[in-house]
């Protein structure tokens, strides 16, 4: 990720700075995870990150490119912006809480810029691709390590629990989202809620899962056939598999 390109876009947007309080955007810019933070990128190239006392010391140690400032109050925040001669900012309204937007609007000139950072986030760096690949590899190792448990008698929730444990075992940081284990008739329902239902011989089981690695996630869906599966289910499985292969090749 090139901060220079972001700074250049801020400069060409005819504003003094771009502001985001979105967790995903903050992580993208700073590579620092927190539940509260405000990133400010000025048109002159100054980079400011505001966070509260819970994260202050950790942020100072881990964030290299940004100047770290302690969040105290809106009044102090706007005093800092005034000292930096920031009077106008660009924001992505879809990534900003309404309460924050209103507070900014009271004190600054606002320019709405939808998907301001998306063009940069969409193109992954070599490092980001490596981290995503690692998240995929961990998820694959995890599912392979617990497949022997996926048999008649285990419940959907029990299998999900074993899978989550395996994520941590192989270096993941837990679930990237709530994993889905859908068996039997449940496997035909999109976004089935994993239940206490026992998996039975003859079931098709769909497992939708993924893990997190250093802030980057994997998302994988696999279908497994348990025991003696009816021929019709096997036929449907093969049709879908062949369609997938055609899609990948095209």
What features would you describe in this structure?
- The protein has 250 residues and is an alpha/beta fold.
- The chain folds into two domains: 3-122, Creatinase/prolidase N-terminal domain (Creatine Amidinohydrolase, Chain A, domain 1), CATH 3.40.350; 126-249, Creatinase/methionine aminopeptidase superfamily (Creatine Amidinohydrolase).
- The chain is 41% helix and 18% strand.
- It is built from nine helices and eleven strands.
- The chain has helices spanning 3-12, 23-30, 56-62, 74-83, 98-107, 118-121, 126-146, 156-169, 231-249, and strands spanning 17-20, 38-42, 47-51, 67-70, 88-91, 109-112, 180-183, 204-209, 212-213, 216-217, 220-225.
- It has a six-stranded mixed beta sheet, with helices on both faces. Strands 7-8-11 form a three-stranded antiparallel beta sheet, with helices on both faces. A two-stranded antiparallel sheet has the order 9-10.
- Strand 2 (38-42) and strand 3 (47-51) form a beta hairpin.
- Helix 7 crosses helix 8 (156-169).
- The radius of gyration is 23 Å and the shape is elongated.
- The relative contact order is 0.10.
- The mean pLDDT is 96.
Number of alpha- plus pi-helical segments? 9
Q: Any idea how many domains?
A: 2
Helix content range of the residues, please? 40-55%
- Name the beta content range: 15-25%
Q: Gap between N and C termini, in Å?
A: 30 Å
Which CATH architecture of the largest domain would you pick?
Alpha-Beta Complex
How would a crystallographer describe the biggest sheet?
Answer: 6 strands, mixed
Q: What is the structural class?
A: alpha/beta
**Average of per-residue pLDDT values:** 96
CATH topology of the largest domain: Creatine Amidinohydrolase
Low-confidence spans: pLDDT under 50, at least 5 residues? none
